[in-house]
TrEMBL record, chain A:
Organism per entry: Plesiocystis pacifica SIR-1
Pfam families in the record: ABC_tran
UniProt keyword ATP-binding present: yes
One function term, GO molecular function aspect: ATP binding
Organism lineage string: Bacteria, Pseudomonadati, Myxococcota, Polyangia, Nannocystales
Annotated ranges, domain ABC transporter: 28-261
PROSITE patterns, per database record: ABC_TRANSPORTER_2
Protein name from the UniProt record: ABC transporter, ATPase subunit
Keywords for this protein: ATP-binding, Nucleotide-binding, Transport
InterPro entries reported for this sequence: AAA+_ATPase (IPR003593), ABC_transporter-like_ATP-bd (IPR003439), ABC_transporter_ATP-binding (IPR050763), P-loop_NTPase (IPR027417)
Keyword Hydrolase: no
TrEMBL record, chain B:
Species annotation: Plesiocystis pacifica SIR-1
Transmembrane parts of this sequence: 33-51, 63-83, 124-142, 149-173, 193-218, 230-253
UniProt-listed Pfam families: ABC2_membrane_6 (PF06182)
Keyword Membrane belongs to the record: yes
Name the UniProt record assigns to this protein: ABC transporter permease
Keyword Transmembrane: yes
UniProt keywords, alphabetically: Membrane, Transmembrane, Transmembrane helix
Amino acid sequence: MSAPEPAIVLDGLSKRFRVNQRDPGLRSAIAALFRREYVEVDAVRELSFCIDAGERVGFLGPNGAGKTTTLKMLAGLLHPTGGRAQVLGHVPARREPEFLRRVALVMGQKRQLSWDLPALDTFELNRVVYEVERGTYDARLAEMRELLDIDAVVRKPVRTLSLGERMKCELVAALLHGPEVLFLDEPTIGMDVAMQLAMREFVREYNRRHGATIVLTSHYMEDVAALCDRILVIDEGRLRFDGSIDALVRRIRPLRRVSVRAAVSEALDVLDALGERVEAQVGSVAYDVHPDRVPEAVAALLALPGARDLRVRDAPLEEVMRELFSRNERLGLDEEEGG
Amino acid sequence: MPELGRNLRYVAAALRVSVLAALEYRVGFWTEAVLGVIWSLAGAAPLVVALEHRPDIAGWTPWEVVLLSGFYLIFAGAFGALIEPPLFETMNHIRRGTLDYVLLRPVDSLLACMVSAFQPWRSLEMLAGAALVVVAALRLELRPGPEQLAMLAGALACGFTALYALGVLALSLSFRAMQLQNLAFLMESSIELARWPISVFRGPLKAVFTFVIPFAVMTSYPAQALLGRLDLGAAVGALVTAAALAGLARVGWARGVKNYTSASS
């Protein structure tokens, strides 16, 4: 039996923008009226990967890495300047109605809801646009109203909603037609922690119930860690890593963090030889050590007076992300890792 | 045919949303209503002034000019109610890079943009125009036969097609030059010229207003059709002009959408 077709296939996908630029000031502004200087910017360079149906995949990368541009090409909004993309067997740039009925894009910084009207009016418009049967529409809306707890807000004008309430309604508007592929571009940006959690839970539940493919970009590492089994790191338009979060963390910060609560008061010269001390205060100590030396470190830390609560873990995600997103440091991801 | 039905349902749903948005602000709604009536009356004012001083205008008797003015109000109202609002809305979307959600809808992108906004009260002008046409036709004792009515329907269809096509061309340009709202204002001002019979213009200006920015097709030709004065050559010319403009608009739009760069988020 042959393997099922991937939901998304990219083969050397590229996007080059032509951007005008000028020096600051009136003189250059006037000069630009007559002669404009353009530069070509490679936003996406020869991206190649596949995503299977039902996968939850996160795009990670610093600002301007090409994540959103890639998403927009996959949703059919932008035309690639090179390579090939296929989503559910369609070429997105052709924007065939059959394709657009099967995908959805939610952007945290843009809205499709009519600003002056209650969200229910936009939902109804989308029902007509996507030709959703009344019964199906009612059932999906009821399901999402319950999951997202938005009964109290769907009748209020969108302009009066909080950011989190609005984003919940945006999600409903995007999902009423039951898309098989859902592109999420920074869906939780600006939200408080509780609202982020609710959004994550909802997206996970949608994926579980409907088997939809989810492609997510987010600056919140927690979003990606909680939702995505697989991540793609994109930097300067190139794919730099394809694999699990654990694999990425160990690639960037291969040292394991070993910590213990103990009555520590004197110098820890013996332990310092094992690795790099990252925390040392009265009552607790932590070291980053090479994986081969973890047993040694564990033994040494357990030997400390009053040792308890010993933990061995990867470096915290925020540290990994800081290192990953730092433009000044080499990412150490020059070779793409097989997912 | 299913495609047509789908598009019509979409147009109805989009217009419903625009009407609902207009109803959302009570003060704005009634202000627009008053302005709509003022626009309608203002549309006929220059006509009264002109006819007080002249027995006819370029061979058109007063009631024939009233008939022409009726068609002018119909087109000016259609522009104000149906074309200018989506032009501004879409130009803003293009400038801000927020056209994304419109382009994601599984309907023709041009249709989606051209029904994205609607000014219900400006359609009062269209009603006022239709009323003027009826009154003038009665005073002129016109009894149009099937052939004249067919010519009238054809001229109106060509006129609306040309008006929409000009709007779409302006919109397509805004993909390249982001701040072209003035082009829509220019269109609105230019439509004023359509209140006069095409015979008042001479030489190149007449050719321009017949074939390039075909105001003649929008107002003079429908009036001539009703008066039984529209010859077949002019009708064919109107058809070719409207078809050419529509084709050009389609190509311009397709190129514009292809070059759409969205906005980074």
